[in-house]
Q: What sequence folds into this?
């Protein structure tokens, strides 16, 4: 098992920058909610789970975020679904991801977010 260490970093930002970050978090929540909708719709139509590539095709160019940030949210949804599936197989009373979100932390790639 690998142990990861986290570190809190405090920073100052203007009101406009904070508003922009919160707007990005709301947009990430819209991506999550779209993933929920697509997965449910796909399951009801086809009787199987939606794949990663199909999810990426369906969410492409629909949101005002960088494409890698959108893919990161989709991958987190798919990871949560897979983890729930494994837990259910182990006998734990867990539900698949179903709750809609208002905010979701936006994932940034190395080159798309720079501090000045």
A:
């Amino acid at each position: 098992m690998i142990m990861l260490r986290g570190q809190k970093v405090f920073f100052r930002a203007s009101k406009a920058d904070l508003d922009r970050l919160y707007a990005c978090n709301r947009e990430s929540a819209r991506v999550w909610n779209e993933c929920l909708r697509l997965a449910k719709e796909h399951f009801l139509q086809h009787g199987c789970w939606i794949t990663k590539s199909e999810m990426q095709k369906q969410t492409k160019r629909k949101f005002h975020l960088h494409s890698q940030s959108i893919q990161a949210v989709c991958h987190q949804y798919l990871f949560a679904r897979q983890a729930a599936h494994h837990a259910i197989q182990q006998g734990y009373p867990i539900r698949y991801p179903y709750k809609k979100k208002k905010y979701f932390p936006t994932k940034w790639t190395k080159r798309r977010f720079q501090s000045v």
